[in-house]
Amino acid sequence: MTDPYYRMFPREWDDLTSCLSLREEAGLLQLCNAAFIAGGKLIDEAETDRALAARCRVSPRRWQAIKARLFDTGLIEIIDGQLQPGAILGPRGRRPISAEERAAVEAECGGACVYCGTTEGPFEIDHVIPVARGGRHHRRNFALACQPCNRRKGAKTPEEWLQ
């Protein structure tokens, strides 16, 4: 039997949605629920738009404004032609880290491992708070790590691993 629930992380939700109006946040929640029910992806964007506008009790035009705001904040995205929650849920599997995200993480980390400081690769993108421990598959949770550090860290938080 498939788990009828998905995990939500209230602190992260609050952090990521603090810039949204209540209607925008409600729209995002409805989108997350619909994506979960659909197995992680919402294939028919037009039908999804009509259904989400109705679920959010807003006009289709208002839903389009809400959806545009959610795109602008990166909280929803289109991957392989399918509308999906972006930063919040990572529903049923992770999307690949894009070249742009990887380049941004490398730049933020100065091209060095965040754990040992080496500038010698190979490098990997680490989930600072491991997904297995409630961390999200989102750029705010990515860091550059050399392969040996990333492998040794595994599913530990930085605090646990560096002790």
From TrEMBL:
As one GO molecular function, the record gives: endonuclease activity
Q: InterPro entries, alphabetically?
A: HNH_5 (IPR029471), HNH_nuc (IPR003615), NA-targeting_endonuclease (IPR052892)
Report whether Protein biosynthesis shows up as a keyword of the record: no
Indicate what this protein is called per its UniProt record: HNH endonuclease
Keyword Nuclease belongs to the record: yes
The protein's matches in Pfam families, at most eight in alphabetical order, are given as:
HNH_5
CDD domains the UniProt entry points to: HNHc
Species name:
Hyphobacterium vulgare
Q: Which UniProt keywords apply?
A: Endonuclease, Hydrolase, Nuclease
Domain HNH nuclease, residue spans: 99-151
